[in-house]
Write a structure and sequence with these properties.
3 helices, alpha+beta, four-stranded antiparallel beta sheet, Immunoglobulin-like
Length: 273
């Protein structure tokens, strides 16, 4: 009887010792730690705490020291290099139990023919095709594709549907007819501007040469006037000098005007429309 009671007491003492030892170890070590639990919507996703891989989801009560930690969960079967992993930065204190439930976005590849179509979501430009977009897995998104000369088209991004979306845009014939008419008008206007450029340039050249020749003739008569001693001839020479000087001035004015027009039409004929 005594031996049986002694064994029970001894067992109780051993159990008490083990419990106290465990509690002491908890107070001295693990009590200064926090824990992180990561449960993702896709099991088996790799979990990285700061720069260390700690296993795959689910991660239950992984111990971490107090302070700031960056948690990264890498997606499985990554569909695109553009697809981002899940990550977040958290600050924990001793005794904290942080529970994370990361979920990944759905990835959609948007292609169009012709390429370069503008892609809008809720009237906000997302980019131009080809384009990779990510939306929450719980969300259905409507996208509108637009390109000049083509009818706009709306497509739906459904998590349960296709993730490679190819769109063939239908050409708007009226747009291209209008563009052809506009281009013809522009070419006709440019042709007229070039013609006016050539005419004004020729007039500018002719009036410039004429101004020089008339000025020389005026100077010639004026030199004769200064050398002449006969009053009657002096009046005649002076009158001719004045006449050619006026003609030279008029020709020089015509040169300036025509040069200005030629420069104006040159700029207009080379302007982009």
């Amino acid at each position: 009887m005594f031996s049986s009671i002694s064994r029970k007491i001894l067992s109780g003492l051993i159990l008490t010792f083990l419990v106290c030892t465990h509690l002491h170890a908890q107070d001295s070590g693990h009590g200064k730690m926090a824990s992180i639990t990561v449960i993702s919507d896709v099991a088996g996703s790799l979990v990285i705490v700061d720069e260390d891989s700690v296993g795959t989801t689910p991660i239950i009560a992984h111990p971490v020291p107090k302070g700031e930690h960056r948690i990264t969960v890498q997606r499985l079967n990554k569909q695109s290099w553009f697809a981002s992993d899940w990550s977040g930065t958290y600050n924990v204190e001793p005794g904290d139990s942080l529970v994370l439930n990361p979920s990944f976005n759905e990835i959609y590849h948007i292609q169009s023919r012709p390429y370069g179509a503008r892609v809008y979501k809720d009237n906000e430009l997302q980019g131009k095709t080809p384009l990779v977009l990510e939306f929450p897995a719980s969300e259905e998104s409507n996208l509108v594709l637009e390109k000049d000369g083509y009818f706009s088209q709306t497509v739906k991004c459904n998590p349960m549907g296709a993730h490679l979306i190819k769109v063939i845009l239908e050409a708007d014939d009226n747009y291209w007819v209008e563009q052809e008419v506009i281009q013809k008008k522009i070419k006709s206007k440019l042709s007229r501007h070039k013609k006016y450029t050539y005419l004004s340039t020729a007039l500018s050249f002719a009036s410039g040469v004429g101004a020089v020749l008339l000025k020389k003739q005026a100077d010639k008569y004026y030199d004769g006037y200064k050398k002449e001693i006969d009053p009657e001839k002096m009046d005649e020479l002076f009158s001719k000098a004045e006449k050619y000087d006026r003609l030279s001035t008029a020709a020089f004015g015509a040169f300036q005007v025509s040069f200005g027009f030629s420069l104006y039409f040159f700029v207009k004929s080379n302007a982009r429309h």
